[in-house]
Design goal:
Chain lengths: 824, 161
């Protein structure tokens, strides 16, 4: 319906012009015409009104402007001529996205009314906003024919809106800032809000922390809850008076926390005023100044105490002089000693205390100068009282300076020593005697002291030294203590010794320690500490308590040695031992199963091949029998190998049982065992006198068994075997070196390294049987004893084996001597 | 088997070892009354006359037990221990025949009261000689504590305490 009206309205333009013309020409009118005229009139009125209030334009379907009214021209600043025929885009401000216009064109192209707010650009580039309604006029087919746009200038409204938005943003920012400030304030200050009656309505966390009240206990309470009773009533009256008048109050208040402890706060109370200018509530911002106040109070107390002390001193005249020597202050002792009352003496020159001769000799002024020059003047001399009587006085004059080093006068301390002087003469006699003795004693002490200093120096060089009081607070540390603990001296002094606790030792460890030293006894032990950087160190620690007068420990001296390296080594050794034990156990299990499981099948091979020969031998041809014999001897060799390997392993596991043993009897025993092997052979044994040595005889027997069996074996080609066993003392340490030598086939020294290797053999098995384990076993036994074994040989000239038993050092270099093994 | 005339109880799990041992005993004419059990549990059942051997009597123990150490189910050492710690069986001669010559096995066996400990030689001739001489010694040379009869057994058992 709206569309219809708009369409008529716009279309009515031309008719209106005609109508005016018609009216002017006063052509006769029919009723119908009159009706039409009246309707047109109404339309014209409406258009007029519209033109007065609205911005009107018409465009064709391509957007080309075909009509604009005056207000359009006015707002766009273009003349009508400039606009007609132009595309409406001429006014595009670029503010709206493309979609905005697409949506608009889509709406109106479909014959629908579009309504929206558009930001346009005027001819001079200025921006204006229009509330826009675009009405399509439709053809008979319902297609848009043209578009009528009616606009209202909303630039002002838009501006107001954006201003509002801006101001909202500003106030948001301000609120945010305020919140930030409140946060910052809460972090740094103690904040509370009370109403005008003093009832607390808000407190921040810091307020709760310092007052020790939870928030719930404070809100609704009168602020008096914190009153410490320190300040007089007037103090608070003055405060309430100030803030009740809307003024800021600032001052320092002493409050009482929940637990009764006292704290000081530097306080600013700001009244928040109502619109009538009356305080509505009070915001109190405080800073904790307890520490400062405490220091001030302590200072004040000291000063007060000092004043009382001065007045309390009756036997000493203590008074102050100005730089020229006039009395400016005076204690009670001075009044008593000199006989002047306060008001009589103040302002007088101090020379009145001197005897006339001294005064005439200008002593007073001289003494002041001397005091000034030397920082102090002292004498024992006669002085006079007010009544003229003289007395002996000990006088000390000290110059006084202010903070800036300006000379402010002198302090003078005088004491009546009349009686003392009489006594002194007697005392001096005694003193002289005493002094002589003291001198003697001092000389002794000095020597002792010097020694002590040397000792301390030596101690400081080598030991880690600290002193603590009975509570464990460190009072002294030396440089080594600092370097080991990585703390500086300043960090340590005054600290409890616990800061070095590593947590390694159980509580009982320290209890036992404190009990020992608490009883005045020396404690000794090894302690693991933690250094500043978190690393650990071990200390061999000795704590020596020093007894005080009642026999109770007064302080503790702690002397330590850094044993971290040793401890670490011990830990490593422990770890290695565990590893070794594990390996040993595994080896044991292994050799146990070898001894069982490896031997059994050998036995079976041997047994059944033997049975084959015995029971079916006649049916087998000689080659088959020969093969069976080879199987037999193979199993025998394998059995021997297994046994010897097991023996080698057993030697390795064997725990030494050293005892004094005569080697000659061991050698004789071995020769007897070997006897069956040399039946029918010519063997010349040359056994020298051998010493008794500390060794494990069971193992040493195995050494000789192997070496002598070897000697027998390798001299087999000789018509007569010569086997020599002897012993020589080594030159450097007199340690016995044992030798087993033969005249056998010998060996080439270039293979000497192979002699002591497992399964290493220098001969073909057809020539000399053997497993290659014997010499390895010898070497292992020798090493177990801490000795060494080596060999010398030459092809066809025989071989010699040497060994020591005991912690033998490197043997002297021998030509052709090969050293096997080394330290095990 | 004639329950009255048992000479040797052979405790051996390994078929090869069993065959070789039986062969050696047969060669020594000692194989007439041999009974073989294949694990420690069976050996204990046999010696203590229980389970499958409940029909046996403590009055007629074997004259010799040849005992291997590594056995299934119950270890040879346990068989030795239980047999030697029970008054009904402790007088039965037990000879351990094993591959092992571990010192700890030796020491432990003698501590438990073994009568003899023999390591089986790898060489079959030696093995055969050993088995034969052990058999001859315990069955012929040695005087057993009980020749026959339960009365004498009871007396001997008490005397030996």
């Amino acid at each position: 319906m709206n569309v219809d009206m708009e369409t008529q309205l716009i279309e009515g333009e031309r008719p209106v012009r005609n109508l005016e013309k018609t009216l002017t020409e006063r052509e006769p009118a029919t009723d119908q015409l009159a009706d039409r005229q009246s309707a047109l009139k109404e339309l014209a009125d409406q258009k007029f009104a519209l033109d007065q209030h609205a911005i009107v334009a018409i465009t064709d379907v391509q957007g080309t402007i075909t009509y604009v009214n005056d207000k359009f021209c006015a707002i766009s600043q273009y003349s009508r001529e400039q606009l007609i025929g132009q595309n409406h885009r001429i006014l595009n401000s670029g503010h709206h996205p493309q979609e905005f216009f697409q949506q608009m064109y889509h709406t109106i192209a479909n014959g629908k009314v579009w309504h929206g707010e558009i930001k346009n650009r005027a001819k001079d580039g200025s921006i204006y906003w229009v509330d826009t309604t675009i009405v399509p006029s439709l053809t008979a087919e319902g297609k848009p024919r043209q578009y009528v746009a009616i606009r209202a200038d909303i630039t002002e409204r838009k501006r107001a809106e954006s201003a509002l938005k801006e101001s909202l943003a500003t106030s948001d920012r301000a609120l945010k800032e305020l919140a930030d400030q409140k946060f910052a304030l809460d972090q740094h200050a103690i904040v509370a809000v009370t109403d005008v009656q003093g009832t607390i309505t808000y407190v921040n966390d810091k307020f709760c922390a310092i007052s020790q009240y939870p928030k719930e206990d404070l809100i609704g309470q009168n602020h008096r809850i914190l009153n410490s009773g320190h300040h007089p009533q007037e103090f608070f009256q003055q405060m309430y008076h100030t803030i009740a008048n809307g003024k800021v109050w600032h001052g320092e208040i002493k409050n009482r926390a929940k637990d009764g402890s006292i704290y000081w706060v530097d306080t600013t109370i700001v009244p928040a005023l109502s619109t009538e200018g009356k305080p509505r509530q009070y915001v109190a911002i405080r800073a904790d100044i307890t520490e400062r106040k405490r220091a001030e109070e302590a200072l004040h107390e000291t000063q007060e105490r000092f004043r009382l002390l001065l007045d309390g001193v009756k036997d000493y005249a203590i008074y102050m002089l100005d730089p020229e020597g006039h009395v400016i202050s005076w204690n009670e002792g001075a009044a008593r000693l000199k006989g002047y009352r306060n008001e009589e003496i103040l302002g007088k020159h101090f020379s009145c205390f001197y005897v006339p001769e001294d005064r005439e000799a200008d002593k007073p002024a001289r003494q002041l100068r001397e005091s000034l020059a030397n920082g102090r003047f002292e004498e024992q001399a006669q002085r006079v009282r007010k009544d003229g009587s003289a007395f002996w006085a000990n006088v000390v004059i000290t110059p006084m300076y202010d903070d800036h080093g300006n000379h402010r006068g002198f302090s003078k301390v005088a004491r009546d020593i009349t009686q003392t002087r009489a006594d002194e003469r007697e005392i001096r006699k005694l003193n002289d005697e005493l002094e002589r003795r003291v001198e003697e004693r001092t000389a002794q002490l000095e020597t002792a002291n010097k020694e002590l200093t040397d000792h301390k120096f030596a101690l400081d060089q080598h030991a880690i030294v600290a002193m603590t009081d009975v509570q464990g607070t460190i009072t002294y540390v030396n440089d080594k203590f600092c370097s080991v603990s990585r703390y500086s001296r300043e960090e340590l002094i005054g600290q409890n010794h616990r800061i070095m606790n590593s947590g390694h030792h159980p509580r009982e460890f320290f209890q036992e320690m404190y009990e020992t030293i608490g009883d005045g006894e020396v404690w000794q032990g090894e302690m693991k500490n933690r250094a500043k950087d978190g690393s650990f160190y071990w200390l061999d620690t000795t704590i020596v308590p020093f007894a005080g007068s009642e026999g109770k420990p007064r302080q503790y001296a702690t002397i330590r040695a850094d044993i971290t390296k040793r401890k670490q080594a011990e830990e490593r050794v422990q770890q290695r031992t565990v590893e070794l034990e594990t390996a040993n156990k595994e080896l044991e299990a292994f050799s146990y199963s070898v001894s069982h499981d490896l031997r059994a099948p050998l036995r079976h091979i041997s047994g059944f091949s033997k049975l084959l020969v015995e029971e079916f031998g006649s049916a087998l041809d000689p080659a088959a029998q020969h093969y069976l014999e080879r199987i037999q001897s193979g199993t025998q060799k394998m059995g021997l190998l297994v046994d010897e390997l097991l023996n080698l392993a057993r030697v390795g596991r064997h725990v030494l049982h050293p005892q004094r043993a005569g080697l000659n009897s061991i050698v004789a025993e071995v020769i007897a065992i070997l006897q069956p092997d040399n039946e029918g052979r010519q063997v010349q044994w040359m056994i020298a006198e051998l010493p008794e040595v500390d060794c494990d005889p069971v193992l040493v027997k195995q050494i000789f068994q192997n070496l002598l069996a070897n000697a027998l074996k390798f001299t087999r080609p000789r018509a007569q075997s010569v086997i020599e066993v002897s012993c020589q003392k080594k030159e450097e340490d007199g340690q016995p070196v044992f030798m087993v030598r033969d005249n056998g086939i010998g060996f080439n020294m270039k293979y000497v390294d192979k002699l002591f290797g497992v399964f290493q053999r220098l001969h073909r098995p057809e020539d000399f049987e053997g497993t290659g384990i014997g010499l390895v076993t010898v070497q292992r036994i020798v090493h177990k004893h801490g000795g060494r074994v080596w060999a010398e040989g030459e092809v066809d000239k025989g071989a010699a084996f040497y060994f020591t038993l005991g912690a033998g050092k490197q043997a002297g270099s021998k030509s052709n001597a090969a050293i096997a093994g080394g330290q095990s | 088997m004639n329950v009255g005339e048992l000479d040797i109880l052979l405790v051996e799990d390994n078929q090869d070892d069993m065959d070789l041992a039986l062969h050696a005993l047969r060669r020594g004419n000692l194989a007439n009354n041999i009974f073989v059990v294949r694990d420690g549990e069976e050996a204990l059942d046999f010696l203590f006359c229980r389970g499958a051997y409940a029909h046996r009597s403590f009055a007629l123990p074997p004259k010799l037990v040849l005992l291997d150490l590594k056995l299934p189910k119950v270890d040879g050492m346990v068989v030795l221990k239980q047999t030697k710690s029970d008054t009904r069986t402790k007088t039965i001669p037990i000879v351990i025949m094993t591959s092992s010559k571990e010192e700890r096995d030796l020491a432990e066996s003698y501590k438990l009261g073994v009568n003899s400990y023999i390591q089986k030689p790898v060489d079959f001739d030696q093995f055969r000689d050993t088995v034969k001489s052990v058999g001859l010694y315990w069955l012929v040379t040695n005087q057993a504590p009980v020749t026959d009869g339960s009365k004498q057994l009871a007396g001997a058992t008490h005397d030996s305490r």
